[in-house]
Request: fold
Amino acid sequence: MGGEILIDSETGGGARIRISLPVSPEGAAVPKLVPHGQGQACAPTDPIPQPPLRVLLVDDNPISALLLRESLQVFACVDWTEASELDAACAAAANQAFDLWVVDGQRSDVSPAELLAMLSSAAAVPTPAIVIGADEHEARRPGDLHWPRPLDMALMRTEFMAWLARHQAHACARLPQGESAS
Reply:
């Protein structure tokens, strides 16, 4: 997919981050984006309407959370809930069913396995996760995705689109016959 991330920082002088990503792979058509309502991201038009993907983003770094949110909203209509604190993340998991958790695997306050266990015990239903940046063997439960840092946009796109296709197939399969997924 291409692109680059350049970071320049000085002690006491702050940091400058430049992210350069191509809009689409060379030769591919650029998808038309359509609004999906307040609080939801835009998504490429799709002949079969899909419900927004409900995602809990658990990251204590606001810049990292912003980059993940902006990167993933290109692929699907996403209704985000963000939590930087563990208590807020567990409360969100207890109060709402999510389709996916995207979690920071490099938190200083809890290991990825502990974070997933906390969310799992709070949630009413099992929820798949994408764990960012942790050791792959420590962070992963069966069925979860692991994205190492630095993030590889091509890997993210390939794995997320495959996961999304499986999720949408399951969501449509759960609908009563004759209803659409809108």
